[in-house]
């Protein structure tokens, strides 16, 4: 016979993390080269990273002057997708533009 009002006993799951935190974030970087045009970099910043023309121009000038510039901060999968999109567009247009990601 079973007792209808008795609750089953539960044991805590072993191996589960006690806290669920925010996913790690990564900044996506564009790197300067001697061949990719400034106009193409601005276009990529507007279309891939959804920057305004003013923001895109500012980031492009930072890339040109400092050799690298931050395009945005994203979870890993989003950052990887954006990097792949940059590389695909650059290769299609014949540019060696390089993007990378770095943990924040």
Automatic annotation (TrEMBL):
Residues annotated as domain Adaptor protein ClpS core: 22-99
Single GO BP term: proteolysis
Keywords, sorted A to Z: Hydrolase, Protease
GO molecular function terms noted in the UniProt entry: peptidase activity
UniProt superkingdom: Bacteria
Entry-linked Pfam families: ClpS (PF02617)
Family: Belongs to the ClpS family.
Assembly mode: Binds to the N-terminal domain of the chaperone ClpA.
Function statement: Involved in the modulation of the specificity of the ClpAP-mediated ATP-dependent protein degradation.
Descriptive protein name: ATP-dependent Clp protease adapter protein ClpS
């Amino acid at each position: 016979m079973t007792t209808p009002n008795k609750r089953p006993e539960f044991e805590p799951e072993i191996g589960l993390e006690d806290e669920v935190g925010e996913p790690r974030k990564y900044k996506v970087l564009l790197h300067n080269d001697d061949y990719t045009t400034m106009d193409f970099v601005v276009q990529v910043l507007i279309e891939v990273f959804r920057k305004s023309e003013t923001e895109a121009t500012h980031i492009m000038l930072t890339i040109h002057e400092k050799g690298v510039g931050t395009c945005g901060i994203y979870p890993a999968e989003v950052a990887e997708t954006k990097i792949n999109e940059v590389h695909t567009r650059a290769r299609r247009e014949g540019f060696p533009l390089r993007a990378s990601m770095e943990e924040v």
